[in-house]
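User: Predict structure, ligand potassium ion.
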Amino acid sequence: MKILSAEQLSEADKISIEKQKITSVELMERAATLVFNEIHKRLQAAPIPIKIFCGIGNNGGDGLVVARHLIQHGYQVTVFVVNYSDKRSDDFLSNYERLKEITNDWPHLIKGEADFPMIDTGDFLIDAMFGIGLNRPIEGWVARLVNLMNESRAFTLSVDMPSGLFSDKTPGKDAAVIKADYTLSFQAPKLVFFLPGTMDYAGDLQIIDIGLDREFLAGVSSKIFLTDRDTVLALYKHRKKNSHKGDYGHALIAGGSYGKMGSVLLTATAALRTGTGLCSLYIPKCGYEIIQTGLPEAMVITDPENELLSDFPADFEADVVCFGMGAGTQEKSVNALKKLLESSNSPLVIDADGLNIISANKEFLSMLPENSVLTPHPGELKRLIGEWKDDFHKLQLVKDFSKKYKVIIVLKGAHTFTINRDEIFINNSGNPGMATAGSGDVLSGVITSLIGQAYEPISAAVLGVFIHGLSGDIASEDLGYEGVIAGDIARNMGRAIKELFRSEIKDPEY
Ligand SMILES: NC(=O)C1=CN([C@@H]2O[C@H](COP(=O)(O)OP(=O)(O)OC[C@H]3O[C@@H](n4cnc5c(N)ncnc54)[C@H](OP(=O)(O)O)[C@@H]3O)[C@@H](O)[C@H]2O)[C@H](O)CC1
Ligand SMILES: [K+]
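Assistant: Predicted complex:
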């Protein structure tokens, strides 16, 4: 699914009005009625005090439409117009008139602090002050109203965007932004809903299809995508009946050290559970029995050293090599990676200490084969590319890095971002239970396995990240977030792949 900018959404709005031969107020009615339906579905006519805060633009217009429907369905509603400007939009005005026709309790005008209502923790707040039209930070008494709403801890539902949140930049440090519990957003997700610095403002997210012009949405260009089931199903390669293990690649996983053999064991388990034909490990001698006992399906080659890697088998032929987990960053391990980069022509996946070694030896970067996949968490990324000012700056730095070194970056997080040159793929499977030791080692195994099975590295990364998250979702259904450990994610990979084909399963929540 494409992620669109505010400009593209406004354009979609205009084109839909033209092509569908409707007025903009009819489009507003359609969009806001869908918001009402979602609220009504959940509240089921409960006698909860609902306070709706409307701006004076079209986001406020949406709020007025929602208010009208709620009142007509017998809800206990108080409407406030947050009068931050005199430039009321036409569609706001026409819905203002329509609202006045159906109730004697006309909207209360807020022109300053003296007009602020009491907000109770038990109220249900609807935030329809600003949407995608926000073009500067919220200031003065409007900012104080936002803070009052946040401090009330009342359940807050934002229409389209939490007010104060820009769709294309990070709010300043003390900016006034609604901290929504739930956001119902129109047509396409916005990038800020997935960035670590801003995702919490949106709370639980639901995208509502308001029927904007399909042709425009299909044709509009975007380099940012939310990975959904349709995307990954299109990437998935079915196995042929007439095939054997040689058709599914030979993955070589190099890493581990004394006390950290579990990491490579997890990576190799995940690689095998994701369908690699053959899996070999290159490890220090001390890991031999651990691996042969823990994972009899894998083959083992040992380094001359007992406790850490020091070398790499120059003549080993693998379809893909994964390097780094548990490897340490000692001089001998640096030498092992250097040897690998000098001798191997296989596609590479680099994780963990492999990335730390590269960060300390930047000359290795130019030795990486084109389209190597690097899988940093934010700490490893910082060592690799330096500090960033905010999430948007970080994305720019990663895109520049990806272009300069011709590599794919899988930036791990609550929403993992896969960045390939200018393109960004945002993952939306997975859950907080996956924030556990070894989860990243499993992900490297999945991506490695898929590359070995002849997936393009970018497809392997996007698909791998998605099914890794799905596997975590399956594991947590059974075990709860706290109960999930990395081995569970590895073990459930096959179920996750099967799950892709269960058509009754909806996309995971954002
Ligand atoms: N395409 C769709 O998906 C649909 C969207 N709808 C809804 O419309 C809003 C966008 O409405 P818009 O009127 O463009 O903008 P806002 O309501 O977000 O803002 C109104 C005006 O507020 C001014 N502004 C901006 N920032 C500030 C600020 N910090 N302080 C005070 N005022 C501010 C700005 O006007 P200026 O001339 O003063 O700059 C805005 O224009 C969208 O989010 C949806 O909710 C449709 O209803 C359905 C289709
Ligand atoms: K809003």
